[in-house]
Amino acid sequence: MEGDGKLEAQIEALLNVEKQMRQAGDVAGTRKAATDILQLCFEARAWTILNEQIVLLSKRRGQLKQAVQAMVQQAMQYIDQTPDLETKIELIKTLNNVSAGKIYVEIERARLIKKLAKIKEDQKLIDDAADLMQEVAVETFGAMAKTEKIAFILEQVRLCLDRKDYVRAQILSRKINPKVFEADPSKEKKKPKEGENVVEEPAPDIPSLLELKRIYYELMIRYYFHSNDYLEICRCYKAIYEIPSVKQDPERWIPVLRKICWYLVLSPHDPMQSSLHNATLEDKNLSEIPHFRLLLKQLITMEVIQWTSLWNTFKDEFENEKNMLGGSLGDKAAEDLRLRVIEHNILVVSKYYSRITLKRLADLLCLSIQDAEKHLSEMVVSKALVAKIDRPVGIVCFQPGKDSNDILNSWAFNLEKLLDLVEKSCHQIHKETMVHKAATIRA
């Protein structure tokens, strides 16, 4: 009791000093008096009084911004030294309420909410943690360091993925432009011009830009894995593969390159996939995993692939992915791989045949006639190739249809060719007639 009375007397004396300094407009004096009050409460371990004084000082009439900012920053240092979780949460909530709506402590508020969200997550309250993080739009904070902004948004994306809120995860991920990871940090450090906001140093626990790049693409892999977007997953692994720290360590890049190869062959055929396929085949590192060079080579060579033979060759490698970095390829992966092989075979057939019977096509694909027709129809619908099926006759025609302009142009060309032949024929007849007349005259 005697200690409490002494503390209250000291606080009262400092409050009077703070009032005098505040009314005199002395920024340094007001800030010193306010932080001294908080220091007294902390040293006395009077956590309830500390919370009360923070609220009281922040609400005093005409309170200076610098004093509020100094109080919030100082009190944040006490958070990790609280005796129990309940006291820690109470202090964070007090500081959060004090800093709400104040631009000059927006960075501190973002860090406080991140701490509170981490506590909620540790308590298995993922939804509450995600809701808390989404309250803050750090992309509008001019004074926050770029790396800290990215780290905060990535934390928002991760919590949305944890709660399986894929729509919001995609919206949040679009706040980060992937080009930002290619910037050279050494060239960006410029002295601020007069009147510009000074960018604060990031918090000590914020990773480097290249580490944030890896985290970003790993989160995007989780997002695209949900919708089985194999090509985008492949591009994400490609971006991780290009990080210098990954590319210099074989133990790190070999599992990533394996994933690139697998997701390339699982991706539907299109120009982007074809470009990545060729670029990966030219990678010298692929010689370290020759099995995968063979796999990529098979799916780019214009020859029909026997599915049974391919699966027997690569089944062990496929199963082994479960133990590699990034985990297994998913439940549908084996089924989708077979589908890609069928699509590859149909493209090969369309290259070598202009017309083929459905029965012969089914034999080449090792499928029933119904399944062959089904897969062919799906590829036509997706515009992967042009084909027409004459079902009564059972013939597939791979010749592309012509539009009206092409037909008219072909008619015009044929007509021009015909007139040219008629003109040449007339010229030859006229020539023969003249030769015949000359011969008759001489005779």
From TrEMBL:
Belongs to the proteasome subunit p55 family. Pfam families: PCI, PSMD12-CSN4_N, RPN5_C. GO terms for cellular component: cytoplasm; nucleus; proteasome regulatory particle, lid subcomplex. It comes from Nicotiana tabacum (Common tobacco). Residues 229-403 form the PCI domain. PROSITE patterns: PCI. Keywords: Proteasome. Component of the 19S regulatory particle (RP/PA700) lid subcomplex of the 26S proteasome. The 26S proteasome is composed of a core protease (CP), known as the 20S proteasome, capped at one or both ends by the 19S regulatory particle (RP/PA700). The RP/PA700 complex is composed of at least 17 different subunits in two subcomplexes, the base and the lid, which form the portions proximal and distal to the 20S proteolytic core, respectively. The keyword Heme does not apply. This is 26S proteasome non-ATPase regulatory subunit 12 homolog A. InterPro entries: PCI_dom, PSMD12-CSN4-like_N, PSMD12/CSN4, RPN5_C, WH-like_DNA-bd_sf, WH_DNA-bd_sf.
